[in-house]
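Record now logged underneath.
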Amino acid sequence: MTTTAEPLLPPTRASLYDRWLGRLAADPVLARRWGWLAPLLVTALAGILRLWNLGHPHELVFDETYYVKDAWSQWNLGYPATWPEGADERFEAGETDIFDTAGSFVVHPPLGKWLIGLGMWVFGADSSFGWRVSVAVFGTATVLVLYCVAKALSGSIAFASIASGLLAIDGLAIVMSRVAILDIFVAFFTLVTFWFVLLDRRSHIARLEAGILARTVDDTPPNWGPLLWNRPWIVAAGLAAGATTAVKWSGLYVIVAVGLYLVVTDALTRRRAGVVMWPLDGLRQGLAAAVLAVPAALAVYLASWTGWLVTSAGYGRGTAATLGDSLASLWKYHEAMYGFHVGLTSAHSYASPAWQWPLLVRPTSMFYHSDELGEAGCAAANGCVQNIYSMPNPLIWYAAVAACIYLAWRFVVARDWRHAFVLTGIAATYVPWLLYPERTIFQFYTVAILPFMLLALAFALRDIASGAPGSSATRRMSGQRVVLVFLAFAVVLSAFWYPVLTATPVPYDFWRLHNWLQSWV
């Protein structure tokens, strides 16, 4: 009997990505070069998409009618003032000093308007570029911060580049970085808060474990672990969370979420190290963290009200003679602000309750203008359209929603602290809005959730690209091709939507191609 030997299959060649990783591991100089080049390229792309033709249209778009004028009167007077009837048209025409001196009731804290006012002071209040440049800068900076967060979570340049690159090209992030309203500031300061918490973790966990080990005698774990106070990044996180709250009160949810995260992670670390009283010990360390962070947050918040406090004509300011009287007046103002927010139920055609947000039912159209054939250079038979539409890239959005569900499942299975960190960010920026189903709220609020959703998506894409532990090179290559195809489609779809995001004149028929759902556009 004779046997025929099976032909030997040629060895599978490693994928281009795996070979690139190998080169980075073998060449520290190349790794350092890419460590700088990748975030610079992603941030530059984000800046181009946000700053290009930023001054168009030279009109107060959507809620810019409130924030731009409030920002400019606040910059000049120290507090937002009232404006006469028909002020929008006169302001757009260059009459920027027609505000009164009487204070205006404004329902959000001052920091975001200070930042908008800064851009107007630098570039001129009569410049629509000046109205919006601050939000464009902060929107671009949010992409860079997301890169830093993703790099700290994963240690991977590719992971960080994908997460931040998707934010750079996403339509919602682009629009909210090109319209002078407050939400991009909320997204930026929220992400910075979580970044600082992440930086604290790098040293705190190791110091905590070392302190517990030092208290262990004859393999007997201590009843209590060390109480650590030297945590400068927690102070920095408090400052950033205070800045979030000084833009919008939704920053309070960020403070609560970060506090709970710190208590739970401390308690679990002490439990793993054998501390007997680990629940109370974690709470004790959490209270210490609150002592570090909360006063810092409060200081930033109060500092944002300096203009209102040092002047006498702001809304509700009164004639308080002492600091105590001034703070009492500020408290009454805050009661009025709270009453407005909890009672905000007025109908709006683009309102979208939070339960609809994952489904992307009703994005917000912030500007729409149509031209007939021959008007303003329009050459389309059915006319031309200019639209600013706060539409996320649909492929990225729905994939990110699915990735959030996947990440929650992965956390239950693997108990990875990185997954818990991302899920905490998602919960802090989304779950509170579910508590107010009757309030008039909008889909574009999700710009604060989006960076954490993209971190979840980056984790899911990494798992697709790498496969299960021990996967073959062929399996990894197939997964990487799937990821590359996804990213390519995401880029194409972002390019398809970009004109509709930026008020670029397009034929009406091209604009109609974006009406994928009846509730869109």
Remarks:
- Residues 192-321 form one domain.
- The beta strands are 365-371, 384-389, 506-507.
